[in-house]
Amino acid sequence: MLLIFPYFSISKNARHLKNWRDHKLANMIDSLVKEHHASLGYIEWFIRFHGELDKTMVRDTLDMANQLQIELHLDSGKKQLKKVHKDLSKKIERINRLKNRIEFDNDWLEEKIFEDIELIHVGDSVALLDEGVDMHHCVGGYVNRCKSGESSVYSVYEGGNRIATLEVKPNAQCQIEKQFKIAQLRSYNNEDVSEELWRKITMLVNPKLLETSDG
Q1: Using one digit for the tens of pLDDT, what is the confidence trace for 40-49?
Q2: Could you tell me the residue range of the domain that residue 88 belongs to?
Q3: Contact 74/81 with Cβ under 8 angstroms?
């Protein structure tokens, strides 16, 4: 006999379990209680919405919540479960990334403010991954470039709002010491930036070269 029945003797939403013929569903609930340490509230929620829920996601969400020591309070079905699952996945992913954080020694630019533009150095692998996620582009994959000193990455802010991501490389063709070049300057979703923003960033990255070209 399944152990869920005494467990639910106090649950008004689960009293009908005593007459269940669906052993598959009953086994699922028993597993959630005994193997995944589901709370009474989580089981009652599952009973209410089980017909529309992905059972693997139900288990995974509960396991992630237990790992993070978070008590789940769900009150709707499939859509809410997907959102909670996604949020918990991101939290665990970030924790795992923090454990393997790589710091970058590549903050090359001396000047970081020009007019209303400010550059903020992306100084480790976690911040780099976050930059790619937040700005919807692939800079999160540049860990090896930044670690090796091939590139340096900066968040570009205008009036306190992040508007672009800058990748800088040493300018091997320039004879002036400590001069750099813009390797990439991309806005949200890899969109191009305006000519005005490019000009301002150039003033910060390589002002002497710009002065020379202006003649």
Answers
A1: 999 999 989 9
A2: 4-99
A3: yes
